[in-house]
Amino acid sequence: MFFKLPTSALRRTGALAATAALSVGLGACASDDGILRTPDGSVISTTVTRIAEVNIVNAGRDYAKTCLAPTAPDPGATDVTRIVVTDPALLDALCALGMGGQVKGIVAPAGSVPEFLGPQLTGIPALGDTPDAAAVTNAAPDVILSSPATANRLAALRDTGAVGAVRVVTVDPTTEWQTSFRAVAAAVHRSAAAQTRLTEFAAEATRVGRVMDAAQTQVSLVRFTPDAELIEGTSSFGAQVMAQVGVGRPATQRAPKAVPVTDANYTDADADLIYVAFQGPQGTERGKEVLLSDRWLDMGAPTWKRVLNVDDTVWFSGSGLAAAWLVLNDVKSSLNSSSSG
């Protein structure tokens, strides 16, 4: 792949490691344990705000605010107060419906819940792929939300004998995100609330696009994975939200699928603004090498410091209304911004 340039071809050798602007107080000092503290011993927050000279959009965002306010059940419907989920991908919908507090167990390994869903959901007990009966009894669900991809976890849940005749609803989170959101909402008797929330989001996306004159800015999406450098098309989650806002895309990025970067299509990554995302540590290392290379820096957007880093988990792994609000807020705060400073 063209992007794998040798170190000798890189510009600004002093920036080969990620540039990290740390939010530290003037009186910061390092203790013996390596943690930055104030003179009185209080821990100082350190937030990385730049990677490879590129600003991170909404660095240090408070994920405790991701989930929306609680919603009421549909008129005449019985409320759902205790939920067990076998697929963490279904949690976004519950987060957007303000029902995180009703989730009592997640049949998945620890650490499976995306961080962007916030501490309420990341703190829910992870019951593992094969939960024990005592844990399931303690969760005492009114409804179990499952997916086609986690049928084995649902079977293990039933094998405990602790769920009895509990209602099970299967929703496919890989379908179009608004469709799966409505399906989860129907399962927990929140169809009316779901429609209200989707309408609110659509109205705000339209407003943001109008106020920011979004169609006049051509935005490129470039994603660095451990195995590839990709120019994204229109089918990724972040791209779908940008389309709802009305953000312009370069002509070369208006097909659905992502395409690997080659010598022949290298400059297809350029635009008025480039959002880059890194999938995991290896994707980050690959991205840093590219973003500091001469050929990348000679393109238009990098020259004008119009390259920004967005959260890969939200923009490319997320798929739901809670993640959509985060993407919209990213666009709102950065469409007219730069990486200078």
From TrEMBL:
Keywords: Signal, Transport. Gene3D superfamilies: Nitrogenase molybdenum iron protein domain. Coiled coil: none annotated. Residues 82-339 form the Fe/B12 periplasmic-binding domain. It is found in: Cell envelope. It comes from the Bacteria. Residues 1-30 form the signal peptide. Belongs to the bacterial solute-binding protein 8 family. This is ABC transporter substrate-binding protein.
